[in-house]
Write a structure and sequence with these properties.
Blueprint (H helix, E strand, L loop, with lengths): L2 E2 L17 E8 L27 H18 L1 E8 L9 H10 L4 E4 L7 H9 L2 E7 L4 H7 L4 H14 L3 E8 L7 H10 L4 E6 L13 H20 L5 E2 L5 H9 L12 E2 L9 E4 L4 E3 L8 E4 L5 H6 L27 H8 L15
Parallel strand pairs: 1-9, 2-3, 2-10, 3-4, 4-5, 5-6, 6-7, 7-8
Antiparallel strand pairs: 10-11, 11-12
């Protein structure tokens, strides 16, 4: 059985003064309510969503303290990604942020731009918001097709609003065959607007009618184009941080020499790659706990009924059997990569199947 290292990413979880503790991230969906019906949304892409769930305040309190109990048991630092839907639409959104602030717990908001203004952003900052993540899923026509008319311009406009309050503005792109040719233009738009962080992740097939999976060759070509663009901007002194969060960046940089396997790496240790089963869980408005929100059928419990600390060592164990990966288990990069099991699950119905965008040949 593989062990989990105490290493932590620098951009994924926020700043930490205690380097001996590792952050544990909770992606907490407090409501399904949203102003958009995005074509690749996990909530709505499978068809008409008849019922929009939201947690009650009592459930939110119980969830928060359950998470703190988890971190106390496993000596972790809690970090929350508050999302939805659009979390700001929840009637107890500000009450929740006050609770986080009272306990000095850092958090990031993943939401829409539509309800942001200078006053809202100042209040977010005062309550401890470190980052606000917005989405750009194409240039204007494509993005507004994915989301809704006017969303593209509103998103870019609110970057400055977020930053003026002292919050880091993050732009995230969901990449698919539909928009992959526009990614270089999206990067330009994010940099021009002054985003603090830019990153992208891949589209996960989720049962709707959007068939937009890329081939492995197409994806590697995209990484090469983005890598050149990132380096060009970095050479110009660009302040935007390019977060290479997709784990296949590790494979690309291994091939290009930017990543080498550490000589002191210990056999049987997991150092990076997919956070599922390592330092991340998702909590839905229903209380359902998922190993990964992007991986269908990865429910491992319900936070209204289960102690999260117990779920972690029982139901979650099935997602830490790294020897089950059909392809990754044979690869020397397995402790640092493992691709995206959610994409494998969405494409082939098997969490441990080969990542369909991984181009590496293993024997």
């Amino acid at each position: 059985m593989y062990e989990l290292s105490r290493m932590r990413g620098s951009e994924e979880y926020g700043a930490c003064d205690d380097d001996m503790k590792q952050y544990f991230s909770f992606q907490w969906h407090i409501t399904d309510q949203c102003d958009q019906r995005c074509k690749h949304c996990y909530i709505f892409s499978g068809g008409e969503h008849q019922h929009l769930d939201s947690m009650t305040w009592a459930q939110m309190e119980d969830t928060f303290y359950n998470c703190l109990d988890f971190c106390q048991v496993y000596d972790r630092m809690p970090y929350f990604y508050i999302t939805g839907g659009d979390p700001i639409l929840h009637p107890d959104f500000w009450r929740l942020l006050e609770l986080l602030h009272e306990h000095d717990v850092p958090f990031t908001i993943l939401g829409n731009p539509f309800h942001l203004n200078d006053q809202v952003c100042r209040e977010l900052k005062a309550l401890g918001c470190e980052k606000y993540q917005l989405s750009l899923d194409g240039l204007r026509q494509t993005h507004d097709w994915f989301r809704k008319p006017g969303s593209y311009d509103c998103t870019l406009e609110k970057i400055g609003c977020i930053q003026q309050a002292g919050i880091r503005a993050v732009i995230m792109t969901t990449v698919s065959r539909t928009n992959r040719m526009e990614v270089p233009g999206i990067i330009d738009a994010a940099v021009t607007a002054g985003a603090d962080v830019f990153a992208f992740s891949r589209y996960v097939p989720s049962g709707g009618d959007l068939d937009a999976s890329m081939t492995a060759r197409e994806y590697r070509e995209l990484l090469a184009v983005c890598d050149r663009k990132f380096k060009e901007y970095e050479a110009q002194g660009c302040k935007t941080y390019f977060n290479k969060k997709d784990h296949l960046w590790t494979l690309y940089e291994y091939e290009t020499g930017a990543f080498t396997i550490p000589t002191d790496a210990q056999e049987g240790m997991i150092y990076g790659g997919c956070n599922c089963g390592n330092c991340h869980i998702t909590i839905l408005p229903t209380g359902d706990v998922y190993a990964c929100r992007r991986a269908a059928d990865s429910k491992v419990g319900n936070i209204f009924e289960d102690r999260l600390a117990d779920v972690w060592v029982c139901q979650m164990e099935q997602y830490r059997d790294y020897t089950r990966f059909e392809k990754c288990a044979k690869c020397e990069l397995m402790p640092w990569c493992r691709g995206c099991p959610a994409v494998a699950k969405g494409t082939n119905g098997d969490f441990y199947a080969p990542d369909p965008q991984c181009w590496k040949e293993v024997s």
